[in-house]
Write a structure and sequence with these properties.
By secondary structure, this protein is α+β, with helices and mostly antiparallel strands. It has seven helices and six strands, in the order ααβαββααβββαα. The strands form two sheets. Strands 1-6-3 form a three-stranded antiparallel beta sheet, with no helix packed on it. Strands 2-5-4 form a three-stranded antiparallel beta sheet, with no helix packed on it. A hairpin with a 4-residue loop joins β4 (137-140) and β5 (145-148). The radius of gyration is 27 Å and the shape is elongated. It starts with 6 loop residues before the first helix and ends in a 9-residue tail after the last helix.
Length: 247
Amino acid sequence: MAIPATREQHKQYCLRNLGSPVIDINVDDEQLEDRIDEALQYYRDYHYDGTEHVYLKHQITSSDKTNKYISIPENIQGIVRVFDIGDSINSSNLFNIRYQIHLNDLFDFSSASYVPYVNAMRHVEMLEEIFVGKKPIRFNRHTDRLYIDMDWETDVLVDEYIIIDCYRTVDPNTYTDVWGDRWLLRYSTALFKRQWGENLSKFQGIQLPGGIQFDGVRILGEAREEINKLEDEMITSYSLPVHDMIG
């Protein structure tokens, strides 16, 4: 069997893991679709391959200045920082300090030491950090709005670009390898099994022809145990370590 590369192949692979078509899996197709969405959401929240580190370029509009926030695409999972706005070090005009050091002190790096240059840049960055500081940001992925606490009238101009350091969810419809991820296949299968058990548990104790009884409670218990093990495996093996926060 080829590795699943589409949503439908992913679903059918998980159903076969549960015994289909030999065994009738008593789960509606809409329930299966909901469980796949649930699995993808958990995968994006915790798996290191569920998101990618990107730099988002945004051009300021008059609406941004009026609203005092930037609208962020829905696939942005989290924002780390915004590159310095109006940074004098990174400007490219003739009076820029970086340009002046290149012009007067460093004709080429083969004839002069780069140590004083690095120290000078660190010193200027420290001065800018002390007297100007970083622009505080506020972001919630459920509102899709990035608030930058600054003077929007003077600190930024219309058509100026802002670079946002952020994490974007990996779209499985674009990067189809996601559908064949080993952990995601097992997790979707466990969620299907849990749904199957929940459906059958409603008919617990009903006698079928031939003396067969539904045993949805056992299926439900096994599925919950598998889900717990997979989620523990996610945290210990597939999640990035938590960064220390100093406040």
